[in-house]
């Protein structure tokens, strides 16, 4: 059961007497043990949850996403830590190398928890099911084949031939959702689709953190080859003193699956810190490749689904996973659903009035959801469009001056802790993108832009030939 579905279950369980979850996979077993063999437990969960093909790769909970999950399920953060999650100060415990230098590091209020997707997933699953005992029914290994509706009712068709009637159907079937095909076949309008595909491919594995590792040095590391490279790598700490590590490439650059070549790829990054760490660390799992994780947006806000149907998660907006936004966007989307339901469904009305309100809330929810997820889309697609080989459908290229300003803010993070905090607050979905133009941020960004102009660092946009695999 994906994190987006679990987050939404936490909301709708408060509004409905009976909730049925149709789950294609078999639910994962209880949370992976943090003592013993956590890597094996994570890999076992990944094999069991085929609907989450990237489950064994690194995931980061943005601060805004963790706050949303804790608001939906009070005590969630505490439970995640109790099961082995590692408390992190994002500005102190993670080391970032970007635009040729390291970000400044400092104590901050930017908090998160280092944990595998498997641990986050199972903790969400257990907490939602525990808090909705007697109300939530899960149908595992269940495949949906179609959707039927009229003005009064909605039915879900199963491949088994069974039909289930519901007052509200929430479609959370991800990037590969068949809902648009079902709607088109029924003569219902389908939403426009926007795409930004930087042709990302990444290869990862897990390593045992050395017992003598100095965690004050850093606990996680991310290296970018910007502004001209097509490669990068990252590693995050998870339960059981394990690093989940990944190398990535854009525009046809593919990290290798050969052991020595994988090490060489890390050694050829502009910063050698990740290479130094993994070259002396014990590999716990085989190399694992993932591709096809491009940015896709379906405009359900402009073309709402039928009455009694809502669309959430990657079926609305799927993002490049390098920017670590997916789970957090899902949690904030669940918060949005809770607010729309509270505003739309009268608490003291008759059951029929409540049912009609639920069936009619779709257009309002999809519009408000579009506003909630828009900042993450803007950040991911603006960055991915810096590469000349990126394939774009229906999305305007960001203004050159804006890109130069954002790059200047990133460079300011090398030495200015206040700018780093502000930049991270936006990247971690705590503040809106407009915060990037706070007077303090604006002053630092413009100062850096003037310096870059003076140093002659404002070249024309790089050609394909200028971009390289470092």
Describe the structure.
- Helix content is 36%, strand content 20%.
- The chain is built from 14 helices and 21 strands.
- The strands form 6 sheets. Strands 3, 4, 12, 13, 14, 15, 16 and 17 form an 8-stranded mixed beta sheet that branches. A 4-stranded antiparallel beta sheet has the order 20-18-11-21, with helices on one face.
- The longest helix has 23 residues, at 362-384.
- InterPro entries: FAD/NAD-bd_sf (IPR036188).
Protein traits:
2 domains, eight-stranded mixed beta sheet, four-stranded antiparallel beta sheet
Topology:
Layout: H1 3-12, E1 19-22, H2 38-48, H3 63-72, H4 76-82, E2 86-89, E3 94-98, E4 101-102, E5 111-114, H5 117-131, E6 136-139, E7 144-149, E8 154-158, E9 163-166, E10 169-171, H6 179-185, E11 193-197, E12 201-208, E13 220-224, E14 231-238, E15 242-249, H7 259-267, H8 273-279, E16 282-283, E17 288-291, E18 295-298, E19 309-311, E20 317-318, H9 326-344, H10 351-359, H11 362-384, E21 391-393, H12 400-412, H13 417-427, H14 439-454
Parallel strand pairs: 1-6, 3-13, 10-19
Antiparallel strand pairs: 2-5, 3-4, 7-8, 8-9, 11-18, 11-21, 12-15, 12-16, 12-17, 13-14, 14-15, 18-20
Helix pairs in contact: 1-5, 1-9, 3-9, 7-8, 9-11, 12-14
InterPro entries: FAD/NAD-bd_sf
């Amino acid at each position: 059961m994906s994190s987006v579905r679990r987050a939404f279950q936490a909301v709708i369980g408060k509004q409905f007497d009976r909730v049925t979850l149709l789950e294609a996979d078999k639910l994962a077993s209880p949370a992976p043990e943090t003592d013993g063999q956590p890597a094996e437990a994570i890999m076992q969960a990944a094999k069991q949850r085929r609907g989450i093909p990237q489950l064994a790769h690194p995931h980061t909970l943005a601060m805004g996403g963790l706050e949303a999950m804790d608001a939906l399920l009070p005590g969630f953060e505490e439970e995640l830590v109790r099961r082995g999650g590692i408390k992190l100060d994002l500005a102190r415990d993670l080391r970032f190398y970007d635009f040729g230098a390291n970000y400044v590091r400092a104590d901050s209020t930017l908090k998160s928890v280092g944990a595998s997707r498997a641990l986050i997933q199972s903790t969400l699953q257990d907490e939602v099911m525990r808090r909705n005992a007697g109300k939530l029914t899960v149908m595992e290994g269940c495949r949906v084949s179609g959707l039927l509706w009229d003005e009064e009712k909605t039915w879900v068709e199963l491949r088994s031939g069974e039909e289930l009637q519901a007052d509200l159907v929430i479609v959370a079937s991800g990037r590969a959702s068949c809902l648009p095909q079902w709607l088109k076949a029924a003569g219902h309008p389908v939403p426009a689709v926007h795409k930004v595909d930087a042709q990302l491919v990444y290869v990862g594995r897990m390593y045992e953190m050395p017992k003598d590792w100095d965690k004050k040095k850093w606990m996680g590391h991310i290296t970018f080859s910007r502004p001209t490279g097509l490669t990068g790598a990252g590693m995050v700490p998870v339960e059981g003193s394990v690093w989940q590590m990944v190398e990535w490439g854009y525009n046809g650059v593919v990290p290798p699956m050969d052991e020595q070549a994988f090490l060489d790829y890390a050694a050829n990054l502009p910063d050698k810190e990740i290479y130094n760490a993994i070259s002396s660390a014990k590999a716990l799992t085989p190399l694992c490749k993932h591709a096809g994780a491009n940015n896709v947006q379906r405009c359900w806000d402009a073309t709402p689904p039928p009455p009694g149907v809502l669309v959430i998660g990657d079926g609305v907006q799927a993002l490049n996973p390098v920017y670590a936004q997916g789970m957090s966007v899902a949690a904030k989307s669940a918060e949005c659903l809770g607010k729309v339901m509270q505003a739309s469904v009268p608490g003291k009305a008759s059951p029929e009035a409540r049912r009609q309100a639920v069936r009619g809330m779709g257009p309002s929810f999809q519009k408000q959801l579009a506003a909630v997820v828009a900042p993450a889309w803007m950040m991911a697609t603006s960055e991915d469009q810096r590469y000349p080989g990126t394939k774009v459908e229906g999305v305007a290229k960001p203004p050159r001056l804006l890109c130069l300003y954002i790059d200047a803010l990133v460079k300011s993070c090398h030495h200015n802790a206040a700018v780093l905090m502000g930049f991270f607050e936006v990247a971690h979905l705590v503040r809106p993108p407009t915060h990037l133009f706070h007077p303090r941020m604006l002053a630092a960004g413009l100062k850096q832009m003037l310096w870059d102009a003076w140093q002659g660092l404002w070249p024309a946009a790089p050609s394909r030939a200028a971009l390289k695999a470092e």
